[in-house]
Specification:
UDP N-Acetylglucosamine Acyltransferase, domain 1; 4 helices; 15 strands; six-stranded mixed sheet; globular; about 180 residues; about 30% helix
Length: about 180
């Protein structure tokens, strides 16, 4: 129980540090739907990993109803996720998200319908995913990647790059 609370406190502190509009940890705890869904997700994920699949899904859908953010309890999320303006976010069952990531509204970490077991993307550490982006399929997004608003990504992305448009990599060679 203490570990659960410690992880949630780290999430709250991270949100406060990353959001310049936030004035206090209490504001995060009481007013931020991105934090509320992380509390819900972390509890539902615990249930899911202990084979309480139906209860985990039921409670995750209640979280979706209240926040507009859908995170499947089977997804794996690291520490310090910042969900900013979370409405419309969908994170699929086999998605993984590393530590210290930021996700803006209307982002999908989804499948393509072509895969059976691993269907959703793996997101590295320190990744920023812009509003409206779609990251689809069992692909890998490297560490320290920035994905621009409304980008559609359907192939692996290496570390330390910025992605815009339809998976186009923006780096020192094509700026």
């Amino acid at each position: 129980m203490f570990k659960f609370i410690k992880v949630l406190y780290e999430d709250a502190v991270n949100i406060k540090e990353k959001d310049p509009a936030c004035k206090s940890i209490l504001e995060v705890i009481f007013l931020y739907p991105g934090f509320h869904i992380l509390v819900n997700y972390r509890f539902c994920h615990y249930l899911y990993t202990h084979k309480f699949y139906f209860l985990a899904r039921l409670l995750s859908q209640l979280g979706r109803f209240f926040t507009g953010i859908e995170i499947h309890p089977g997804a794996s999320i690291g520490k310090k996720l910042f969900i900013d303006h979370g409405i419309g976010i969908v994170i699929g069952e086999t998605a993984t998200i590393g530590d210290n990531c930021t996700i803006y509204h209307n982002v999908t970490l989804g499948g393509t319908g072509k895969n059976i077991n691993k269907r959703h993307p793996d997101i590295g550490d320190n990744v920023m995913i812009g509003a409206g982006s779609k990251i689809l399929g069992p692909i890998k997004i490297g560490n320290n990647v920035k994905i621009g608003a409304n980008a559609t990504v359907v192939k692996d992305i290496p570390n330390n790059v910025t992605v815009i448009k339809f998976g186009e990599i923006l780096n020192k060679d094509n700026i």
